Amino acid sequence: MSKIIFFDTETTGNTEKDFLCQIAYKTGGESFTGLYKPPIRIPPEASAVHHITNKMVAEKPTFYQSGDLQKIKKLFEDKNSIVVAHNAPFDLAIIKKEGITPANFICTLRLARYLDKEEKIERFNLQYLRYLLEIEVNATAHDALGDVLVLEKLFERLKDKMKKEDKLSDEEILKKMVEISSHPSLLRTFGFGKYNGKKIEEVAKIDKGYLDWLLTQKLASDQIDEDWIYTLKHYLGK
């Protein structure tokens, strides 16, 4: 029987150069949250999102020194565990820096995109989906544990929708969720820029140069953007 672990991280930023300053998880009736001093300073841009300041972590140990690392590593890396995160590639990259590589993962962002076949949803960030889907939960946004509570409810909504569509058992649904999460999403429509609202497939026909330029920008960026890189390469035939 699979053990589902919902988790979230708060970090010094959203690039490959950033580090963990908070982690929270919930599995069954057990929940955990820990605050740590990262190896670099928390910039004000990050504090403005999660409200964790350098003063708050000044006397905290690093994640490695805290004693929590081995406990979380054992839990997350167990072959029967499935960790669940929203935009999982980012959180997985952050905890990989700390030496944690989960055996199995589910990305609720990729699942939400997969299930939105009619492209009715404009944005897919966690808090937007929380209010769009009217998920009732007493949770503070952009706090790691608060986001975990929202994540758990979102996961259940997505799981229920998949069960109705596919008529599969719980274990079969989990297996399909892991499979969908294991590869990047193929995006279909621009949600920004001069082609906002346009189908990417159509833009590829009339302005391939724009897609080439955007791919170059994405590859040069230090942000983790697997879905866009995969999508642009797909439509460019690369």
Describe the structure.
- The chain has 238 residues and is α/β, with parallel strands linked by helices.
- It folds into 2 domains: 3-181, Ribonuclease H-like superfamily/Ribonuclease H (Nucleotidyltransferase, domain 5, 2-Layer Sandwich); 184-238, no CATH class.
- Helix content is 48%, strand content 13%.
- The chain is built from 12 helices and 5 strands.
- It has helices at residues 44-50, 54-57, 63-66, 68-77, 88-96, 108-115, 126-132, 144-166, 170-181, 200-206, 208-220, 226-236; strands at residues 3-11, 20-27, 30-35, 81-85, 105-107.
- It has a 5-stranded mixed beta sheet, with helices on both faces.
- Strand 2 and strand 3 form a beta hairpin.
- Helix 6 (108-115) packs parallel to helix 8 (144-166) and helix 10 crosses helix 11 (208-220).
- The longest helix is centred in the middle third of the chain and has 23 residues, at 144-166.
- The chain is globular and about 55 Å long.
- The mean pLDDT is 92.
Q: How many angstroms does the end-to-end distance come to? A: 40 Å
Q: Strands across the major sheet, in which order?
A: 3-2-1-4-5
By CATH reckoning, the class of the largest domain would read Alpha Beta
Structural class: alpha/beta
The residue-averaged pLDDT reads 92
What is the count of helical runs?
12
Q: In oligomeric terms, what are we looking at?
A: single chain
Describe the largest sheet: 5 strands, mixed
Helix and strand sequence: EEEHHHHEHEHHHHHHH
Q: Strand share of the residues? A: 5-15%
Number of E-type strands: 5
Tertiary shape: globular
Unreliable stretches (pLDDT < 50, length at least 5) are: none
Helix content: 40-55%
Give the full name of the CATH homologous superfamily of the largest domain. Ribonuclease H-like superfamily/Ribonuclease H
From the coordinates shown, what is the CATH architecture of the largest domain? 2-Layer Sandwich
Compute the number of structural domains: 2
Gyration radius over CA: 19 Å
CATH-defined fold name of the largest domain:
Nucleotidyltransferase, domain 5
